[in-house]
Every structure is written in C-alpha cells, then in structure tokens.
Amino acid sequence: SLGERLKTGLSRTRGAFAGLGAVLQGDFTDELEEELEEILLTSDLGMQASTEVMARLRVRVERDGLKGDGIRDALKAVLLDIIAPCEAAFEPGPGTNVVMMVGINGAGKTTTLGKLAAQHKACGRSVTLAAGDTFRAAAVEQLKAWADRAGVPVIAQDTGADSASVIFDALASARAKDQDILLADTAGRLQNKDHLMDELSKVVRVLKKQDANAPHEVLLVLDAGTGQNAISQAELFTRAVGVTGIVLTKLDGTAKGGVAFAIALKFGLPIRYIGVGEGIEDLQAFSAQAFVDALFE
Ligand code: GDP
C-alpha cells in the first residue's frame, strides 16, 4: 500500500526516531539533548528547525517533568504541532481552475502533474494539460506521454515557443471547453535564475489578463531528497511567484523527511501532496499524522 511505501521511503528517518527507545532511558540530560539534536539534524530538519524543535521539547519536558518514553511522545507531539497546520487540501472552485507547477528541473514537476491529472479525472473532473516547459526539448514529449496515460488532452507548441503564450492559449481553450482544471507545466531551468523567475512572473501576469483569479494554485515541487537545498529553492520561488502549496516528492527514496518540518516553520505553506514513487498512483494527499507516524513506527 502507499502507506507502507511511505514508511519504506522514510525508513532512515524512521530508524533514527524508532531507535529513540534505547536513547531515552531516563532524565533529560545534556547528553540526551545533544543526541536528540543530532538525530534531528541527520533527519534533515536543518539547524534552525532542529533548534526550534528542541526548544519546544524542553518546555514540555520541564513543565511536565517527563522522562524516557514521555520525552519520545512529547517529541512526536511537538513535530505534529509543527506540520499539522500544513495539512490543507486544494478545493477547486467554479470555472476553470489553473494549477501551475513550478520547481527546478528534476524535482518531479512533470511526473506530479501527470499523477494529479489522473487523480482529478478519477474525481470526475475534466482536465487539460498545458506544456509550458518550452525550454527543454524532451519536456513536451514527456508531458504528452503523461496525458496519454491519464487520458486527458494536452495543449502544446514547439520547443522555444513563449511559455506564457502557450499557457495563455491553453487557458482560453480549456475555458472554451468548460474544463474544470488546467494543469500547467513550466520550465525548471533557463539561462539563469533571474530569467527563470522573470518568465514565471510573466506567466502569472499574462494569465491574470484572462482571469484575475488565475493561477488558482501554484504548486512548488521539491525533491525531499535534496534536504536543505529544498529550503533555498523554496526561498527563491516564493519570492518570485505566489506559491500556494508544496509537493514533496521522492519520499520513497533515501529522503529523510525532516525537511517538511523546516518548510512548515519557515514558510507556513500547505503541503498538498507527497510523492512516493514514479507511478501514476504514487501521489498522496499530505496527512500530518500519517507522516509523523511513519517517522516513528
Ligand atoms: P521535472 O524536471 O521537475 O519535471 O521532473 P520529472 O517529473 O521529470 O522527474 C524527474 C525524475 O524523478 C523522474 O525520473 C521521475 O520518475 C522521478 N520522480 C518524480 N517523482 C518521484 C517520486 O515521488 N518518487 C520517485 N522515486 N521518483 C520520482
């Protein structure tokens, strides 16, 4: 099952937290604090989030005089508190909802877009894809393959076409056909960062000419396996475009998952989905409880 696959994916982190039993034998000593902080760091929380988690844990431990397993449960509660607010699904409104995918090359944008197309379709929604990554030659072909798999139409132009105009035309077409969802792919790499961010803000600007509420969702796709790199990517993209949700991919691989807590603390954005494989069904709605459980079980 997907739940099992997530656990397997997070097994290294799970190993770290599951092994807490041996560490948590008695009082909350300095040595124990150091050991816990080390575990958080190796689980990809990063320095800032690890420090925050330890501070919150210390408050609980001192307030309630916790020891051993009590400390473990308090850590779990602290982690859950941090990511629980990130559990928020995207609810499509009336008309054509534009969902724009952003993220660097290789993060899993196109794959996630394909999985999402299949999910929306399974929910009875009509879906059109826009091949907005006009920079990478293979990107359009890859998107067409996902469109076939999901059984949805794709609007594309030649490589080198203007991304904003491809997505603008796709929206016109999707609106004319009363489509519920337009899923727009975008480039993950151009000549340089500024150029890429300019292009993404242009896409947003142009879409608004057609529908002031578009894009209705901007999903930032982050490879959870890149650890703290994911944080700097999030900084870059949230500054350039109004990101409304995060997708954490490749949690079935060697990713440790801690980056979710760092993102929650730093950006406070919803984590809409997690990617747990390369197949069309390997996308789960984010559940804070299931996520924390997977790290500890
Ligand atoms: P893009 O450049 O951002 O569009 O990234 P792609 O969608 O092309 O994905 C890059 C690679 O990551 C591909 O080989 C995908 O199959 C793989 N990938 C994407 N999401 C996941 C995931 O959740 N788990 C695993 N294991 N691989 C993934």
From TrEMBL:
Keywords: Cell membrane, Cytoplasm, GTP-binding, Hydrolase, Membrane, Nucleotide-binding, Receptor. Its EC number is 3.6.5.4. It is a peripheral membrane protein. Signal peptide: none annotated. Involved in targeting and insertion of nascent membrane proteins into the cytoplasmic membrane. Acts as a receptor for the complex formed by the signal recognition particle (SRP) and the ribosome-nascent chain (RNC). Interaction with SRP-RNC leads to the transfer of the RNC complex to the Sec translocase for insertion into the membrane, the hydrolysis of GTP by both Ffh and FtsY, and the dissociation of the SRP-FtsY complex into the individual components. Belongs to the GTP-binding SRP family. FtsY subfamily. This is Signal recognition particle receptor FtsY. It comes from Litorivicinus lipolyticus. The gene is ftsY. The chain holds residues 78 to 374 of 378 of the full protein.
